[in-house]
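Lab notebook, bench 4. The sequencing result for the construct came back, and we need a structural model before the next group meeting so we can plan mutations. Quick request posted to the team channel:

Model the 3D structure of this chain.
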Amino acid sequence: MRTSRLQLLAAAGVTVASLALTACQDGTGTRDEGASASQPVASTPSDASSQAPEESASGSGGNGSTANGSTGSGGDTAGSGESGSGSKGSSAGKGSAPGGSDDAPATFNPCNGSNTSVSAAPVSRPVNHMLITVKNTGSKNCDLTYYPVLRFDEMQWVPQPVEESKPQAVVTLAPGESAYAGVLLSAADGSGSGGATGKKLTVGFQGRTPNSDGGPAAIPSLPAAGVYYDSSLTVTYWQSSADDALTY
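Done. Here's the predicted structure in token form:
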């Protein structure tokens, strides 16, 4: 009896093992594998997670709308920038003043022998001095720049200016107005050399830049006896008053 029971149990065990084996080979087992194989299908969330950057991009797009808002404020900033550029434009408008000064050469009108009358006369005080007077005889303003360029007869050198007499600005003469330059003819103590008597005086005019040609020279009349000068000969810058011209 025991032997037959053991045989029956053994047979039952074989039967269960066979059923288990069969179950592993049937469609249920395949479905299990299919379920594990369906995990890539379940990768849709991973696809969704792969879309997460797009969502975050759209989210950043939402932030981008905020950024657009920022851009809007940036537009305000740009607007303020425009107003800033407007202020720059106003500065440029102020800069037009220098532009106007850049136009000054076009309006610069030098005084010279063609639009003035020029006289030269020795004075009693201070001693050994002569006063040159230039009067605007034209119909519009003219400008006297720097100092007169003097030449007695065929003199080969140019008298130097008295630097201390340099004015703060160019002397401008309205029609009918006069300007002056003082001339030291010779040293009062006789220390000058190369003395000579000039019979003819040529007064040259300078242009806008030093030593440039300011137009026709003038030849004022001198006393019949002429004018004595020596190596001390110097001249002042153009002055608005005769007193200033004879100060040096």
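Residues 14-105 have pLDDT under 50 and may be disordered.
Will bring this to the meeting.
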